[in-house]
Amino acid sequence: MAETEATNFLRVLLQKDAEHIQTWLTMVWAEQQQVPEKFNWLGLAEVSTSRAQELANEESNESHSESLAWAEIASSVYEFLAENNPSFSERYLDSLMTLRAYMILKFGAIPENPVLDIYLIINWFFDNLHISYQEALIKAADWREALAAKNPEETQKKFDSELEDFRKLRFIKSRLRIIKYLSKSKHFLPNEELNTWISVWEKLP
């Protein structure tokens, strides 16, 4: 019953405009509004993302304003999901930063804007890297050599003994994918350190 109630609530909520939903979210974050049990937060984030991207491609200024409003909704929900679901936080943050990069490419960068602040993406990239550029290069070369040898038994041994290192490299590559996408923007001016990391993307497993 709770799931049905939550599904119906989300369906009705998504019939409202972005301003209404943002007001509702503000009340939820302030603990002034109850949320149905089993509410589909990810569904709200994904629909809001889709609407933001669709409206961003229209020509009118009104559509662009609505696009940013939907993107702000999606951003706040993805942040909420990341904070409250540690096991899946990277997945939600990846979706959030991909959306921000998309919107920056469409509308440009605006400092301290919850959607268009380019440094929110850059700072996120450097958070929790847990590995230096030099170490990443060495480990990436080692993994490329192992995978190129096409020796399943030896490769499996390497996975068993160095799985955490492999995960770190994949983690970095996933974040760099968004940085590379963002680099299409004329507003993106990477410093030497970031350019160095971008150069390693193709070398990562």
Task: Describe, in plain words, how this protein is organized in 3D.
With 205 residues, this protein is mostly helical. It contains 9 helices and no strands. Helix 2 (18-29) runs parallel beside helix 4 and helix 5 (89-107) packs parallel to helix 8. The protein is globular, with a radius of gyration of 20 Å. It starts with a helix and ends in a 5-residue tail after the last helix. The mean pLDDT is 91.
SS elements, strand count? 0
% residues in beta strands: under 5%
Percent helix among the residues?
Answer: over 70%
Our measurement of the CA-to-CA distance between the termini, rounded to an integer number of angstroms, reads 46 Å
Number of continuous helical runs: 9
* Unreliable spans: none
Mean pLDDT: 91
Shape field: globular
Radius of gyration: 20 Å
Q: What structural category do the secondary elements indicate?
A: mainly alpha
Succession of helices and strands: HHHHHHHHH
Largest β sheet strand count, sense and barrel closure: none
Topology summary:
Elements: H1 2-13, H2 18-29, H3 41-56, H4 61-84, H5 89-107, H6 118-126, H7 133-148, H8 152-182, H9 192-200
Helix pairs in contact: 2-4, 3-4, 3-5, 4-5, 5-6, 5-8, 7-8
